[in-house]
Design brief:
Blueprint (H helix, E strand, L loop, with lengths): L2 H6 L2 H5 L7 H15 L8 H17 L2 H14 L17 H10 L3 H17 L15 E7 L1 H6 L1 E12 L15 E2 L8 E6 L2 E6 L8 E2 L12 E12 L8 E4 L15 E7 L6 E3 L2 E8 L1 H6 L1 E6 L4 E6 L8 E4 L14 E7 L7 H13 L7 H12 L1
Parallel strand pairs: 1-9, 11-15
Antiparallel strand pairs: 2-7, 3-6, 4-5, 8-9, 10-11, 12-13, 14-15
Helix pairs in contact: 3-4, 5-7, 6-7
The structure holds zinc ion (2 copies).
The site of one zinc ion has 8 residues, from loops.
């Protein structure tokens, strides 16, 4: 794609957000659209697929703070002809390509800044003339997977369907109908750039005939329409290592987008989301569980059987144990692939009955009478007494 195409596109409108939308808003809008337009949800709907591509492209730029800044700056500079200083346009009509050429060739001042900016655009997108034939590494791709708590602890293999732009399988990425080959662009001789003279200066700009690629496709591939890019749906099996934590990213080398011109393939990053467990929590490699106990169990001591993820564990609670005490069952936590094993942390918490029958109530009242001489909060009462005196 040429820089001109890029700037003429309204990525904000594509995502349905305002141009001052926050990164979070952009992400949210993209997620929603990507779900609606996903090829899996719209089989055979070429309109949806085109929108999916456009939305993905827009998100690719707007989700990257540096790219977004460049895009915003470029759009601000090229927004309509009106705002641009006069004397720059070549004989009437506003021509973006014109501006590109001149701006890039003027070192220092405003032109130099533009040249840097557009150079950045070209290199990032890879569609520009400068990198038309240079090998370029494929983009990294990020995706999300959601697994259960137990799967995260034990490790899991998760099948995933992944849709991403990829070199078209029908034409091998050339954009030409199978059996034909793209020809070298006659206008630029394959360089992707044309040079024009303007007064004392010579300016290079992306070739309009070949859109800066240096090659022209006469008979476009029916699958990708000449782009050389189509949406590829892949099924991958992802091995999630035991002990993975919520929010962690797993890197799958070489599973991202294919490189251009023989460049290496990018990587795939899978962000793991872990569903919470109804009973167990997690603190690093330790599992946590809260066990409700009765007051007599803590006061008199007891032996508790507590479930673990793999089975159960027996815990001896000594007489006179405080509520809130944390007991540790060694080695009953999360066993990671690297050999680290966590513990199970058991928090004992008194459960107060909210409904007692007459007999239980009487027993408890007797207990209260029998222990009336015992002050459970001497420190606090001492403080209150001090305050009463002053
Ligand atoms: Zn194709
Ligand atoms: Zn050309």
């Amino acid at each position: 794609m040429s820089a001109r195409d890029w700037i003429e596109k309204d990525f904000y409108r594509e995502l349905g957000v305002s141009s001052d939308a926050s990164a979070e808003e952009i992400k949210k809008a993209y997620r929603k659209l990507a779900r609606e337009l996903h090829p899996d949800a719209n089989p055979g709907d070429t309109k949806a697929e085109a929108r999916f591509k456009a939305v993905s492209e827009a998100y690719g730029v707007l989700s990257d703070a540096a790219k977004r800044k460049q895009y915003d700056e470029a759009r601000r500079l090229f927004a309509g002809g009106g705002g641009f200083p006069g004397g720059f346009g070549g004989g009437g009509g506003f021509d973006v390509g014109d501006l590109f050429g001149r701006a890039g060739a003027q070192p220092g001042g405003m032109g130099g800044g533009l040249g840097d900016l557009l150079g950045g655009l070209f290199n990032r997108r890879g569609g520009g003339a400068a990198s038309a034939t240079r090998p370029r590494r494929g983009e990294d791709v990020e995706t999300d997977v959601r697994i259960d708590f137990t799967e995260a602890v034990r490790g899991a293999t998760v099948p995933m369907r992944l849709s991403s732009p990829a070199a078209c399988g029908t034409c091998g990425g050339s954009g030409a109908r199978p059996g034909t080959t793209p020809r070298t662009c006659a206008n630029c001789g394959g360089a992707g750039l044309v040079t024009r003279s303007q007064g004392a200066f010579a300016f290079s700009e992306p070739c309009q005939d070949c859109r800066g690629t240096g090659r022209v496709v006469d008979d476009p591939c029916p699958e990708c329409g000449g782009d050389g890019v189509s949406t590829r749906t892949r099924t991958l099996t992802i091995r999630i290592p035991a002990g993975v934590d919520d929010g962690q990213r797993i890197r799958l080398a070489g599973q991202g987008e294919p490189g251009r011109n023989g460049g290496p393939t990018g990587d795939l990053y899978v962000r793991v989301h872990v569903n919470p467990h109804p009973v167990f929590g997690r603190a690093g490699n330790d599992l946590t569980v809260t066990v409700p106990v009765t007051f007599p169990e803590l006061a008199l001591g007891t032996t508790l059987t507590v479930p673990t993820l793999e089975g159960k564990v027996t815990v001896k609670v000594p007489a006179g144990t405080a509520s809130g005490r944390v007991m540790r069952a060694k080695g009953k936590g999360i066993a990671r692939r690297d050999g680290q094993v966590g513990d199970l942390l058991i928090t004992l918490q008194v459960a107060v009955p909210n409904n007692m029958d007459a007999k239980a109530r009487e027993a408890l009242e007797n207990y209260a009478l029998a222990t009336a001489g015992h002050d459970p909060r001497p420190d606090l009462n001492a403080l209150l007494e001090e305050k009463g005196r002053s």
